[in-house]
Amino acid sequence: MKNTITTLLLLAFLSSCKTIKTDRVTASANDGNPSQSMQINNPVIKDKYTGDPAALVYKDKVYLYAGHDEAPNDFNFYKMNEWLVYSSSDMVNWQEHPAPLKVTDFTWAKSDAWAAQVIERNGKFYWYVTVEHGTIPGKSIGVAVAHSPTGPFKDALGKAIITNDMTTKTNISWDDIDPTVMIDNDGQAYLFWGNTVCHYAKLKANMVELDGPIQTISLPNFTEAPWIHKKKDWYYLSYAYQFPEKIAYAMSKSINGPWEYKGILNEIAGNSNTNHQSIIEFKGKDYFIYHNGATQPNGGSFRRSVCIDRLYYNEDGTLKRVIMTTEGIQK
Ligand code: FUB
């Protein structure tokens, strides 16, 4: 009898192990070894379309901010009314927080919750966003502020910090988009942004006023989506290159340049004409966060999905080309 019970328990245990194993989706590893069982973790957010990822490392978590792609399946342009935020302690499991910011939170804005980035300074979180201005034709950059990375956020200025009439190097009305921010080691903050022309300016310590003239940076085939980050003593300016977009990058020893173009970092992301990257280091590993349009059956350039893959540096500080994967980040 005792042997029968032991056998039954063993069979029950083995069958539960099988269930766990079949819950895992088998996929080929990066090295092409099909024998490895890995989870499919790209895209990261599966229940909503998300684009323009911008990640913030704060304390022991990563906060992932993204625009919400709400375009219906038969609509071929952006429909974006709000930004979303998710957090993770391991880059694999993501928790959604209530939508912390909408276009309507900026009374002077009309539409278009386009690309954005959050940065922390002295315990306050500043969220630089792209929106269509209500009265000044063209895209503008606004700033929201909160005491927590998940909000609640409110308009910090009551007006745009950048409007289309402040930049005149190109006539297009959407050249003032895609803000990225960095606070340098000496405490000086910088705002970079642009489409067709890459602009940058210093920010005052209050983070809501420019502290000097708007300058431009010459980068080959610059389209949009600048992302500024620093690693060791190198500054990196990555950006969307050509259209459909690849991601390319330049390096400099100073945030004020000169910038040396270094080549392509990421190829065109599946089924999307934009690519929009964010680069972070978290718990000793480097990550490349981007979007593609690969979610079936309706994903595409206006119904995008945020994905994450590893980023690797060479000894000399240059970047290895990103390998976009279906598996994404594994635990
Ligand atoms: O999401 C709208 C626009 O598409 C962003 O501002 C660009 O960077 C591109 O991703």
TrEMBL record:
A molecular-function term among this protein's GO annotations: hydrolase activity
Alphabetized UniProt keyword annotations: Carbohydrate metabolism, Glycosidase, Hydrolase, Polysaccharide degradation, Xylan degradation
Record-stated family: Belongs to the glycosyl hydrolase 43 family.
Name of the protein described by the UniProt record: Glycoside hydrolase family 43 protein
